[in-house]
Structure formats: structure tokens, C-alpha cells
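Give me C-alpha cells for this 240-residue protein.
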Amino acid sequence: MQIKCENCGAAISAENIHEELAVGRCAHCNGLVDLARRRGDDGSSPRGRQRVPLPERFKLDEGPGRLTVGWRWFSFVHLFLVFFCLAWDSFLVVWYSVALGRLGVAEAMPANLLMVVFPLGHVAVGVGLTYYTLAGLLNRTTVEVSGGALRIRHAPLPWKGNRLIPGHEISQLFCEEKQSRGKNGSVHRAYHLQAVVGHERRRISLLSLEEPAQALYLEQRLEEELGIVDRAVPGELKAV
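Here you go.
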């Protein structure tokens, strides 16, 4: 596993690591890295764990000092949503064509105005669902480690969750399973890749994924690339 300098992100070569003192020296900026702290707050050694293979939907591209994992959002659910949005939006277009045409008629003016105002909630749903469907058809998530930093991008349509985090600020990555129940009692599970960052050790959610193997694979590969030694986090999802 490659160890990187917390100051500049440069890789620390084996000859600059002093195992007995548990420190390493960066040849690039001359900074010291506390290897005992990187092993964990309790000084424990890295945990043994099962290697998670590359998930089917993921595309991997790696080179010297660089790792990129990307995947498209598209699924067959989005094809269904295309037809649903066409029907929903077409209805609203016809409705407003009639409503706006009648708005200028003097008779029954309050009723005509009500035809314009009443479906505004449906318009909001239509706009949001249409944008969500377009994002599912077009967007791609890219997770990249380069220059000692972690970058997450969702594009081409704007979407929340884009991040750029210096690698030295991340002390641990781990996965959690989140469950939510539908109105019919069905259970939906999502798998969140979480990061512990900063001196205050804040926990932030980086990504929500559909399958546990996707979250666990990213955890392992990103920790390796960022030089983070894996350690146990209460309640985390584990590879089995």
C-alpha cells in the first residue's frame, strides 16, 4: 500500500520510512508523516479483509498517481420514466392551452383563473421528474484521485454532491447501509460511502450507491490510492 505525504500528497518511498519510529519523511517537501496515527488512533495494524472485485457497471482507468472510476446512471427504470413524463407533461400542455385560451373570456373569470392556478403543484412535479429522468439518461459519476486529492463529479447536467477534498484531510472511509420504508411496507436499501474528514473528524456522505459491492469496492480502492489504512468503524458495512 502506498503511503502519501499529508502536506503535499507526494508518495513516500520505502527508503524514507522508519518502521521502528513509525514515521516517514517526504523527499518532496521534507515533511514528516506519523505512521502510527495513519494505522489508527489506537495504533492498531490494518485489518485483513476480503478483496471486492470491480462491479459490472464501473469503468476503471488508472495510471501513475491517478485513479478514475466512473459509471453511467442509466437503468431501465429511466426508460419507463421517459414515457411517464411524456404522458404527464403532454396532459399539462393541453390543460394550459385550454386554460390560457379561456382566461381572456369575461364570463366565469374566477373559474378560468382557477384552471390556471390549480395544477401548479402538478407542474412542479412534472418539472422535477423530467429533470430527474434526463439526468438518469445523460449523467455519469466520476470518482477520481489525482494530485493527492479526491474529486467527485456528476455531469453533464448539474447535480448536488460534486466534491473536491484534499487527501490529507480524509482520515477514514467506510460504508453504511441505509434503509427506508415505502407506503406499502416495502424496504428500500441504499449503500452510502462515508468519509471522516478534518481535525474535528466530521462524517460526510460522499456517494449513495445501489449495491453493497459498489460502495465497498470504492472504499477499498480509494483508501489504497490515498494511503489510508483501514480500521473498524462502528456500524459499518463489511465485505463478507
